[in-house]
Amino acid sequence: AQSVTQLDSHVSVSEGTPVLLRCNYSSSYSPSLFWYVQHPNKGLQLLLKYTSAATLVKGINGFEAEFKKSETSFHLTKPSAHMSDAAEYFCVVIAYGGATNKLIFGTGTLLAVQP
Amino acid sequence: ETGVTQTPRHLVMGMTNKKSLKCEQHLGHNAMYWYKQSAKKPLELMFVYNFKEQTENNSVPSRFSPECPNSSHLFLHLHTLQPEDSALYLCASSQDLGKQLFFGSGTQLSVL
């Protein structure tokens, strides 16, 4: 069965320092993986996606994620945090199952950015 | 904007009221979804529609009644809700089932 685990519920960084949000997945198949961001009182917005092409995926707002099969990880990184990055981030894996596929959401990581 | 519009943005209702949430997508997608997001809880998938046919109901109480008249519109009819139903209700669409989701901004519901 497919699943996704976000290892940190809260991460706090200072503005200008690197961001690392961790995600591990479990999948019997070659997975498709996404990162979504949710700003306060807003819907979820796609940051980036991995669909078996290049293992280093670049997304919007300077974020990127690297697919590491050996570690079953898909961590999200950004070299330098900005105040506007404060939001909740969700790692998502597609669960393939017969006629229908489902998106499995992680529990989210709340990123705080200190001035 | 994502191309998925939800109205209203905020809703306050009493437990005896009847109200409806509306979702419209302008992306030509075939699948639409309702999610519930409560504080300190994982995102919960409620209903899935594909080509306006319901394909999934995740044991949602009958006080929530979805309606999908066509592939572009999705409603969630609410009646006799409980205070614990207060949450952000998110609509999403995708080209096909299991593909990338496009979310609306949500309706923040408060049940008094």
Quick rundown:
Chain A is mainly beta and 115 residues long. Chain A has strands spanning 3-6, 10-14, 19-21, 23-26, 33-38, 44-50, 56-58, 64-68, 73-78, 87-97, 100-105, 109-114.
Name the chain pair with the biggest interface and residue counts per chain. A-B, 21 and 23 residues
In oligomeric terms, what are we looking at? heterodimer
- Strand content of chain A is over 45%
Largest sheet entry of chain B: 7 strands, mixed
| Morphology call of chain B | globular
> How many strand units of chain A?
12
**Approximate strand percentage of chain B:** over 45%
Q: What is the straight-line distance between the termini of chain B?
A: 31 Å
Helix content of chain B: under 10%
Task: Look at the structure and give the mean pLDDT of chain B.
Answer: 93
Task: Specify the structural class of chain B.
Answer: mainly beta
Cα gyration radius of chain B (Å): 13 Å
SSE topology string of chain B:
EEEEEEEEEEE
Outline the structure in words.
The complex is a heterodimer of chains A (115) and B (112). Chain A is mostly beta strands. Chain A has no helices and 12 strands. Chain A has strands at residues 3-6, 10-14, 19-21, 23-26, 33-38, 44-50, 56-58, 64-68, 73-78, 87-97, 100-105, 109-114. Chain A is globular, with a radius of gyration of 14 Å. The termini of chain A are far apart. With 112 residues, chain B is mainly beta. Chains A and B meet through strand 6, strand 10 and strand 11 of A and strand 9 and strand 10 of B.
